[in-house]
């Protein structure tokens, strides 16, 4: 029980709002933060905030209302996306704002790590999900298509061109590089498979780091075209190629030293046979790096809610490691809570035992 200081009504208790009620309001306020960020990206606001600028300067460049631009920038600063300061410390000159230095690589459109389109895409998907959630809640998961139709595959191809590519450049590639960099046998790797690799930037980055590495980016045919384009743009067509098919039943090759497989198994009807085929596709001593969200962390529960209600698999913590051992993998090492686009993943490092 708390009381106002110098309370003229000392017997009247002022009960604190329960944390659970505040968390409902916080969730609603987070929706508004998401709208603010998306509007800022759509307006190209961050283009004008690489250097410190007043709200008036930003407003004049974008033909906005100066007063309301200041209020808008204040909220972006409260989110940590911008930093602000007085132009002259200790004086009441107008505040100046710039993109927070740690956010600049991700929000400055000129940066190679720009995430703006990916953030807008996620915002749209999450806004749309309200209607879908209601239908899924009332009707349950729809029957699974045996194979996604051409429209669904084209949607993956569009995502691979923009949103997945931005997320791979900014987040997934650095994670893959860090994990591969820890494995002492990486210098002996000669062939790799990037399964469900989307735009293929993980395979491209690893091939750039390891000059003796060749390999395949495997995805639906229309997505494989995007990967092939990126492979050629990187000048790696002599060492990498893309292959199109449905990984649930088509051949994805064999004899690999390394298989990278991230955020893919959610989309197959049953991961167990795929894991067995991955084991068979590795050379003895080869390594599978498998990065997938596991149900447990709150961000995973939030982000994957719609997909899980659609009947997609997000396995509970530890289940994928158990399935890998069942499929014949040895030395399964778990790296939990690894940063990944939107929600963390568990990275499993699993080996195919050497032939006896
Ligand atoms: C969420 S994205 C992940 C892309 C990439 N692995 C990454 O982590 O950035 C899933 C990818 O798996 C591909 N995919 C899903 N189901 C597939 C299937 N049955 N056959 C081939 N590719 C599939 C999609 O086209 C998409 O590129």
TrEMBL record:
It comes from Thauera linaloolentis (strain DSM 12138 / JCM 21573 / CCUG 41526 / CIP 105981 / IAM 15112 / NBRC 102519 / 47Lol). It holds the Pfam family Methyltransf_23. GO terms for biological process: methylation. Keywords: Methyltransferase, S-adenosyl-L-methionine, Transferase. It comes from the Bacteria. PROSITE patterns: SAM_OMT_II. The keyword Transferase applies. Residues 32-101 form the O-methyltransferase dimerisation domain. The keyword Iron does not apply. One of its GO terms (molecular function) is protein dimerization activity. This is PtdP, QbsJ.
